[in-house]
Every structure is written in structure tokens, then in C-alpha cells.
Amino acid sequence: MLESYLKNRLIEKKILLMTHIVLGYPSFEKCFKIIETMVNAGVDLMELQIPFSEPVADGPVILHANQKSLAEGSTVEKCLDFAQNVTQSFDIPFLFMSYYNILFKYGVDRFAVAMAERNMKGAIVPDLPPEEGRDYLNAMEKYNLDPIFIFSPTTPDERMNYLASFGRGFIYCVARKGVTGLDTNFSGQLNKYLERCRMATHLPLALGFGVKDKKDIDFLKGKTDIAVIGTQTIRLVEKDGVGAVGEFIRSLG
Amino acid sequence: MINRGYYDGFGGAYLPEILVATFDDLEDKFIKAKNDPSFWKEYTDIMSTYSCRPTPVTFAENLTNHFNGARIYIKREDLNHTGAHKANNVMGQGLLVKRMGKTRVIAETGAGQHGVATATMAAKFGFKCTIYMGEVDVQRQRPNVFWMDRLGAEVIPVREGTRILKDAINEAFRDWVSNMDTTHYVLGTACGPHPFPEMVSYFQSIIGKEARKQMLETVGGLPSRIYACVGGGSNALGIFKGFLDDPVELVGVEAGGRGLDSGLHASRLSSKDASIGVAQGYKTYFLQDSDGQMKKTHSVAAGLDYVGVSPILAYLKESGRVRFESATDREVIDAMSLTIKKEGLVPALESAHAFAQAFKEAPKLSKKDIILINQSGRGDKDIFTIADAFDDPGWKEFIKKKAEEYNA
Known about the structure:
The complex is a heterodimer of chains A (253) and B (408).
Chain A (H helix, E strand, L loop, with lengths): L1 H11 L3 E7 L5 H13 L4 E5 L10 H12 L4 H14 L4 E4 L2 H7 L1 H10 L4 E3 L9 H9 L3 E6 L5 H8 L6 E4 L13 H13 L4 E4 L5 H7 L5 E4 L1 H10 L3 H9 L1
Parallel strand pairs in A: 1-2, 1-8, 2-3, 3-4, 4-5, 5-6, 6-7, 7-8
Chain B lengths: L5 E2 L2 E2 L5 H18 L2 H13 L7 E3 L1 H7 L3 E6 L9 H15 L3 E6 L3 H13 L2 E7 H6 L1 H9 L3 E5 L6 H15 L3 E3 L10 H24 L5 E5 L4 H7 L8 E9 L16 E6 L2 E6 L23 H8 L3 E7 H15 L5 H13 L8 E6 L7 H8 L2 H15 L1
């Protein structure tokens, strides 16, 4: 499903672009506008983060976005309603990204049902390794949703194979140590890591953490299938407003 | 990681992928150390020469007479170097850091005790040290910040979230995911992903091992009840572990804050306000809303106002082995005041929760009963907080004058 969509898309484009927003930040209305702008500018897929009070893997920018969204009254229910609206309005695949407690408290099976009903394609849950994710994996399988797993530079080859055996859709490769939004050194070392990732899976590879401009994306062409822009667009909206997003996305192509 | 550290469904290791290899290595080194008989000896040796182990058990004769019920004994963890049981865990993990060949340690701290203990250990072992501390706690525990500075640690005030202990833990994790090659995260309590709950309670079990022996040898019998305060749960598990197989009732006392009905408390196991969730890498009872967002907590004691609790204690609650109660801020201040006046002992505000609950129950027990209270730390170094809690006029006057001197 997601995998075949991505592979078809890759016939026409050298590298695909996935963006990330935090739902309810700066507001749900603005999120809708941002998504509309991104889709029009050619983004291929998007991850919608349901905010959590303890986003351990996120750096300061996304952390603040989580906190502000919650302070403004975001709830899981509002995020689900919003997702429904989004998938009905735009014709690209959308994924949820959140921490496991959000799914756990909602009920993992019930959450998967809610995703399927809203035509969400899959989920990224960064604090849920497959060892802890039996319920989640069963539910995702049952409702034909893709669980996206994560590789990191510290992941040994053997474990990459193990993770890939559970992943569907694509594999999210974290570019470096650390949290989201810090600088990444796009260099030869990254090539080696991406080669290791490629060996471990037939799934498309997405690379995220620190991707911020055309130069980074050009570097990644031919090495990865999807470039992930997360923090950079949130920063841009904070600095220059929603209007600046379209031009920025187009500048990457 | 083969053993994922589950205690009847609580615990686990909900880790971001970037940390999985680090935890595998940590678990491996910990298991090797645990299985090496020389390691525990190395640990008890350093605790007897650098800290003050074995810490004594004190008979509280005046409190016993005052309540005219059970005989009250106190395990004196306050006599550890740096003034709290935190030293046990920190020195143990320090020895492990040496075995792992790492050169830097980081830690979170609430009240500041664990931060000071970690900075002390780092000074002794020659490690670089960074301490994350919620901004609110930096304000209310300034003297501990002073000592961490003197000890050469870098103290980073955390301005995210609720700006207390849980937020400091998040920041420490964010540091660790960048620097795990050189750095060990000295988690201060029996929480977090496996192997931390097991590892921290292993080092703290020295309290219960000693206490059991002391009760049998010097008091002549086991206590009928043991009281310990519960923040994350490390001092409670430390003493309880020595008595799990004995006919001894174990009582964990949580922060009742302004009362369980007020919502302003940190009682996860003794209130109806908590539910099972997964955060900060493990599954346990958290004070959270129906969406799974963590709630604000409150306690007069900075070391107790944590949203989660050790998965091992969550299991011991469900199995019925440990009873959980709570003490309000007011009850804690009163218990502390009485202990100071009657015994000349100054429990930390955290530890005073255990005293408060023991005082509620002691009069109802017979004179043949023995109860043991874990005095997990000493309060005299928290003079600013305690003076505020007592609303002490003489102290306020002194501080005003002192401020004028600095302004002059």
C-alpha cells in the first residue's frame, strides 16, 4: 500500500519529501493551511504528530510545539477529528506520529480502528521497539496499517534485519545521535550508514533529523528514497508565518 | 536485551532506537558485576570508608513514650555521606561507570540530594558531571545548587514542561541520546527503562540487608511494620527488599500534598487519580489525564513530587505485599517538628512522610510491637525549604538582613 505508492512515486521523482507537523500548533486552523500549502508545493507524504507531554526523543523546537499545543487545549479526540478532515481534503498519504502512551491510553486496538476509519496509512511510535509492541503490531496488521520502524546509526546490522522484519511502508533512518532539530553533518559517514540500512531492507528508506535545505536534500539523492523535514518548517512558520512554507518547500525540489 | 525487566506487567524498556545498544551494554555490564562476588565487596568497602555504612538503627525512646504504643526504631540513612540514601545508588553506579570505561556522568535531580550525591561521586572518581534540575527546584533548593557548583558539576536549570523532576529526567535523556559513548546516565531512582529499576534497587538493598541483621542482632526481633516514603521508590525498595520474605508489613508513604481530594498531591498508588501508562521508558501508574498527558503534581517535598513510581512498587501494590498510604504537607511538618523536639533528629521533608504515617499508627499498636521507620535523608541541609515550611519569623528576619548586606 504505502510501499507501492512510494515506489511508484519514485519512478517519477528522484527523492520524495515527507514533512512533519505537530497537531494543534500553532492552531488547528493554521495546521490545515500548512498542510494545504505543503501538498500544493509537492510534498509526497506527511506525519502528523499527536502532542504528548513527555516527548523524550524531540529537541527544543518540537518539544515547545507539543507543549504549546497542549496548553491551547489539544486533545487526542481533536487530533483524530482533524485527521479525518485532512485525509478527506488531500490526496497524499498521512501517518500519525506519537509516543506510545497516547495509543496505550486510547486503547491500542481502538486507536488502530480510529486510524483506519480516517484513512490514515500508518504510524511512527519512536518509544515503542517491536519487543514491547506485540499489541500494536497485531492491531496494525489487522486493520491493514503500516507500522514504521526506526533505524539509528547505533543499530547493529543484525538488529536492523530484526526491525525490518516488523516494518512496513518504509524505514525511518535517524541520521545521527541526539534529538530532532539539531544540525546533522551530511558527509561520508552518513553514506556508510545508509548503505548498511539499504542492505537490511527492501523497503524504501526515509532519512530524518537535521535535514533543512536543498543542499542536504541534494546530498541525499540516490542514497535515500525520502527526505524528512521536521523541525525546519516549524521554525519557518514561527519566524515568517504560514505563507513562507510553500516557497520553502518548492526551493527544495 | 533478553530480560525486559517486567514485574507482573509493570516495567519494560520502551526505548527510542538510538538508545537500545546503550541499554544492552548497560544491562550486560550490570549483570556481570552482579554475578561477580568481588563487586558487592568492592561496593560495601567503599560505602564503609567513604560513606557511613553500616548506618545505625536508633531506638526512638522519647517518641515511643510519647505515643505509648509500638516501640519505634529508625534506620539512619541520613548519616550517609551527602545526607541521604542517594549515596548508595550513586556510588554503586559510579563503580559500574568505571567498569564501562565512561568518563562523564549526567543525572536528574528533584530535591537536589541525588544531584549533590552524583556530583560528589563524580568528584571522587574524576568524572565530568552535568546535573539537570527543574527550574522550580533550582529555586527552592538553592543550597544544593551551590554545593553542586562547588563540586565541579555543571547544573542546568530545566525550563521545559512543569519544570520539576520529570522534566529534568526528559532533559537528561535528551543529553544521553547525544553523548552515550562517553556518558552514563545515573538515574536516581528505581524507575525508568530496564535495567534501572532492578539496578537501583539492587544497590539500595544494602539498607534492608543491614536493617534486618541489626533488628535481629540488637533489637532481638523483626519489626511488625516498616515505613518508608515513596517518591520514585528507591529508599522504600531498598529497605523493603530485606524483608520481603518475612512476616513484616511494609508501608509505603506517598506525598498527600494538600490532601488527596485537592488534586494537589503526588500519590500514585494510594489515590484514585493515577492510572497505568507508559512514559519515560517504562510502564507503571502515572498521574495522567484520560488522554495520557502527565498531570502537575504537588508536594512540600521536592523529592516526592514525581508523576510515576517504580514498576517494582506498582507490582508489590497489586500483589498486596506493600500497603500504600499518603501524608499531607501539614501532617509532615507536624511529624518533623515532633521528631526534632523529641529525638533531636532532623528528617528530610521527604523522609518525614514515613514518620507522619508511623505516628498515625504507632498509638494503635501494642507495646510488644516494633516498628521501623526509614529516615532516608536529613533535613538540616534543606534549611531554606524547611524554614519556609515552618514559616519561621527569626529566619525570615535573618534573610532580609543578609539581603541588605549583599545590596549594600
